[in-house]
Amino acid sequence: MFANEKGGTGKSTTAVHIAVALSYLGALVTVLDLDPRQRTTHRYMENRFRTMQRRDVELPTPACEVFKGRSEQALLVAIDRLEKDCDFLIIDNPGRDDPFARCAVENADTLVTPMNDSFVDFDLIGQVDPESFKVKKLSFFAELIWEARIKRSRATLAEKRPEMDWIVVRNRTGYTEARNMARIERALTEMAKRVGFRVVHGLSERVIYRELFPSGLTLLDKGQLGDLGTSHLVARQELRTLLKALNLPEFSKRKSPMESA
Q1: Predicted confidence band of residue 255 (pLDDT cuts 50, 70, 90)
Q2: Which end of the chain is more exposed for a tag (fewer CB within 10 A), N or C?
Q3: pTM beyond 0.85
Q4: Which neighbouring-strand residues pair with 137?
């Protein structure tokens, strides 16, 4: 699950790239978009299908649907239905707090929270002292995740489910001033010890991510992107490193049409 109540953190972009990366590895992937109004992830996949039709090509592509149910129980039924037919179900939460988002968080095996390297984004997780930059208290979102993990731990004993793995992904670090980056790193390290999340590096700020949306392509679709510059090759390696850092469960590989991508 990709969840962050703040917009502009690269949440949907990261979710799409991870979903496509898993598809390239031969996994069966389904994406559930929980935002029926914006439908960013679903729109990305629609653009991808149109590009494949227009260019008459086949690209590893996750299945995708938008949740339009009216109850938390309907969401749980949808999750159960989709999980039966895929190796990975990736849920893209809306950038707000609502009952469906909370319900999905409570049932996530892996919770990924992308954030930009700024204290504006860090405020979603915790508040810091304006002079020392030390963490003063948890934010509402962090408390929500903490409670969800406690609830999940109780269910783990009864249902033999794995503990939730919470990962904070630091996106767009390339444009952060060094001193500010160091302060954020110290604050994240302190917060990670308090609430038990892992911190990994994500995707740097690159124009190509915004340019790829209309076509639905990703950095892994190298046969469709033309000549790539060095920065794009570095970005592709960032994605591979991020996928490895998520430490997702192994799966039975069905096919790998472009594993060398």
Answers
A1: low
A2: C
A3: yes
A4: 127
